[in-house]
TrEMBL record, chain B:
Entries under NCBIfam families matching the protein: CU044_5270_fam (NF038083)
UniProt superkingdom: Bacteria
InterPro entries: CU044_5270-like
Protein name: CU044_5270 family protein
Length: 197, 357
């Protein structure tokens, strides 16, 4: 699932836990910043994303320099910080998602896709409206859903990153998905059903 | 007339569409960013007081983050159910949910709360049981875990959080390799202590729990600011839940789950919920952690989200998620009444940090 965002192992993962010094922070930036930026940009656009990513790394430095760190831990921490920072940009995020949806609709030729009958074709048609529906979700549901779908975080990781009980993460994830599924089902799109399974 | 789309088809399309949604090529210059970051660090080292000195004043904390690889979510399929609820006839009398809530509110408002005295702690234990599965695979496991938290009378003092994992087991016929991932972030018995409950694993930017109140984190100031009038309180719950009834119900649920509201305010929350449309009695004898109560549920897509209240004294027992309607999927038939997850909440006053009732 979510094949386009397959987890990327951090290159420092196999090394012994080190101390977060300047060199380590810069190495960490090299291995994670682009991916974090892509995730944040997908939510708020690239300009705001630059600021959010820079700020997240500086916050990491201010809080954790000189301390031992683990690569996975730091990754979760950075995404948690970014998520908290993004709460200050909710309007921008919703604008970005709706704008993307419109722009996508304008450049997607349904007739072209319509000849292909596959789940991929379904997704091509529905990615536009889906992005606009993301803007309608409660922000708590959206951030959990997108950390899961776009950043490949498990509910457990999300619970730690956001300090929310894992039960609440699951509820929000389940609700967010249920809501989007219902919106999908309500379209007049003719879904390609599974031929077997 | 075409057949209704299968849930598994919708899930598959949803995943595929989500992976495209909002995506576009973005330019990111890692090398330039790295130079800028190095420059910013240099400026900080020169301008700010040496951060290393500041760090000495902060307690050194070693944060443990457990990361899991698989993307998982809650599912429930045939044969997975730990327990089921008979939902026959549910919703036929919507008035009864409001009646139960008013009754519980009357009982709760008669409770005289003992305040948490100086040096004492509010002990809140949340006992979670649930089934977790992995999207796109047949793996599923049950988790039985709890969190215990000790909140000091003065929130600025030290809090403690302890995580317990009682069992994590594969569901028969849904085994994967090795051991299943515990449905919680921490190791059994892992403990955190911090003033204001700002534990070391929190992400930076998390609102200060001593000063930023919410239904989820009720500071005394937040509790005092809540309207007494049930309609006004419902409006506040809606506001926090983004103006929706389902959101309002979630806000109430988070408030009750916190275990930190005085009986009088809990009574007001019940009265506010009595005015919420769509709430029905889903189970008259719901058993959670050995306590029996009446379950009041609100339908949200596939599920009823329930709060369970002790009809004898208006106590809040916990919450559940129950499948509202028979479903079918490639993981088997999802039966109406299947309990997806439950969370039982205990909240009492204890005399010392780490003490249990």
């Amino acid at each position: 699932m979510r094949s386009d965002v397959a987890p990327v192992a951090l290159t420092i993962e196999d090394e012994a836990p080190g101390v977060l010094d300047e060199a380590a922070l810069l190495t960490l930036y090299e291995s994670t910043a682009e991916r974090l930026h892509r995730y944040v940009a997908r939510r708020v656009g690239t300009d705001t994303a630059q600021d959010v990513v820079s700020e997240a790394f500086l916050v990491l430095w201010d809080q954790r320099q000189g301390q031992a760190y683990e690569a996975d831990a730091v990754r979760a921490w950075l995404y948690g910080v970014a998520t908290n920072l993004l709460r200050g940009h909710v309007r921008a995020e919703e604008r970005k998602l709706r704008a993307w949806s419109k722009e996508y609709a304008a450049r997607t030729d349904e007739a072209d896709i319509g000849d292909r009958v596959s789940a991929a074709a379904d997704a091509d048609v529905l990615a536009g409206p889906l992005t606009a529906w993301l803007a309608e979700l409660r922000v708590e549901e959206r951030e959990v859903l997108l950390l899961n779908a776009w950043a490949d975080f498990s509910p457990t990781e999300i619970a730690v990153a956001l300090d929310v009980p894992v039960a609440t993460v699951r509820t929000r994830l389940h609700r967010g998905r249920a809501r989007l599924r219902t919106s999908l089902a309500a379209t007049d799109h003719d879904f390609t059903e599974d031929s077997h399974v | 007339m075409s057949e209704p789309t299968k849930p598994e088809t919708l899930d598959r399309v949803l995943d595929a569409a989500l992976s495209r949604a909002g995506d576009e090529p973005v330019q990111f210059d890692v090398a330039a960013g790295k130079v800028a970051l190095a420059a910013a660090l240099k400026t900080r080292a020169e301008v700010a007081e040496p951060i290393a000195v500041g760090a000495e004043h902060r307690p050194r904390r070693r944060t443990r983050w457990l990361a899991a690889a698989a993307a998982v979510t809650v599912l429930a399929g045939a044969g997975l159910a730990a327990s089921t609820v008979d939902l026959t006839g549910v919703g036929s009398n919507p008035a009864s949910a409001a009646e139960e809530l008013i009754k519980a509110a009357d009982l709760a408002s008669r409770v005289v709360d003992r305040p948490v005295g100086p040096g004492q702690y509010r002990y809140v234990r949340s006992h979670y049981t649930g089934i977790t599965g992995e999207w796109g695979s047949d793996k599923a496991w049950t988790t039985d875990s709890a969190t215990e938290e000790w909140i000091p009378a003065d929130r600025r003092d030290e809090w403690m959080l302890r995580n317990r994992i009682y069992s994590v087991k594969w569901v028969d016929g849904h085994e994967g390799e090795g051991d299943p991932e515990a449905g919680t972030a921490f190791k059994d018995g892992e403990e955190f202590r911090a003033k204001c409950g700002m534990y070391s694993y929190f992400a930076e930017g998390y609102p200060d729990r001593c000063t930023v109140g919410s239904f989820h984190n009720p500071t005394p100031e937040f509790i005092a600011s809540l309207p007494k009038d049930p309609a006004a309180l419902l409006a506040k719950l809606r506001e926090e839940g983004h103006a929706e009834d389902a959101g309002a119900f979630m806000s109430a649920l988070e408030a009750l789950r916190s275990g930190q509201f005085p009986a009088e305010v809990r009574a007001n929350i019940f009265r506010a919920l009595a005015q919420l449309p769509g709430l029905v009695v889903t189970d008259k004898r719901a058993n959670l952690d050995g306590k029996e109560g009446v379950a009041l549920g609100k339908r949200y897509y596939d599920d009823f989200t329930e709060i369970i209240i002790d009809p004898d004294n208006g106590d809040f027992i916990g919450t559940r998620e129950v499948i509202a309607e028979d479903q079918s999927g490639d993981k088997g038939t999802l039966e109406k009444g299947t309990v997806r997850s439950s969370s039982a909440v205990t909240s009492v006053i204890v005399n010392s940090i780490g003490a249990r009732p």
